[in-house]
């Protein structure tokens, strides 16, 4: 997970062989061209998942900030992930029984995909109702607002632009503080056995 600050007209290189990529636009806009010849315009809160070895190019239309996730794809059986291009606001709100935050998943939950990106929205004063512990690692970028994050027995004030990496089995908890909503983008391993 990294931030890419692109100037007007900047271009990206391809990731290494067998590496999948997800691009999320935080600020500005980009033109994404894929090997089929299709070009997609990605604005703020838009994203694209590019399967491993898919040829593509990214050109910024103006100064832009992108969150980019790159990782070696973990194949399973004959399943193959497909290109996904979307916008956060077009993804359905998912039920979160017992919780108050709003949740959207940006990628399909089907077996070909070995990670997912969640967008979580909290109104001021809202918080996770339980302290969570997960077997998988997480990467988080606070996109809007501010709050406090608990990792293990430590408490961390966070604001828009801050990132957190959460190791497996570390207890975690979040509360939104301030007068505006907070939104974070969360990376999560899925659909693969973490012990293999």
From TrEMBL:
GO molecular function terms listed in the Swiss-Prot or TrEMBL record: ureidoglycine aminohydrolase activity
InterPro entries, sorted: Cupin_2, RmlC-like_jellyroll, RmlC_Cupin_sf, UGHY, UGlyAH_cupin_C
A Pfam family matched in the record: Cupin_2
Domain Cupin type-2: 119-185
UniProt-listed CDD domains: cupin_UGlyAH_C (cd02212)
NCBIfam families xref list: ura-cupin
Protein name in UniProt: Cupin type-2 domain-containing protein
Organism (species): Aegilops tauschii subsp. strangulata (Goatgrass)
């Amino acid at each position: 997970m990294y931030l890419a600050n692109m100037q007007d007209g900047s271009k990206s290189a391809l990731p290494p062989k067998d590496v999948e990529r997800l691009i999320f636009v935080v600020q500005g806009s980009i033109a994404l061209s894929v090997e089929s010849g299709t070009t997609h315009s990605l604005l703020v809160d838009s994203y694209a998942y590019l399967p491993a070895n898919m040829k593509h190019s990214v050109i910024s239309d103006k100064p832009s900030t992108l969150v980019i996730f790159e990782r070696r794809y973990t194949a399973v059986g004959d399943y193959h992930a497909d290109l996904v291009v979307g916008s956060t606001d077009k993804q359905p709100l998912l039920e979160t029984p017992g919780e108050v935050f709003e949740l959207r998943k940006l990628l399909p939950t089907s077996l070909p995909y070995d990670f997912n990106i969640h967008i979580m929205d909290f109104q001021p004063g809202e918080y996770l109702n339980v302290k969570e512990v997960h077997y998988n690692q997480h990467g988080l970028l606070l996109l809007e607002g501010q709050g406090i994050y608990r990792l293990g027995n430590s408490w961390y004030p966070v604001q828009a632009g801050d990132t957190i990496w959460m190791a497996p089995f570390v207890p975690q908890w979040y509360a939104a503080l301030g007068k505006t909503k907070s939104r974070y983008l969360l990376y999560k391993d899925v659909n693969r056995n973490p012990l293999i």
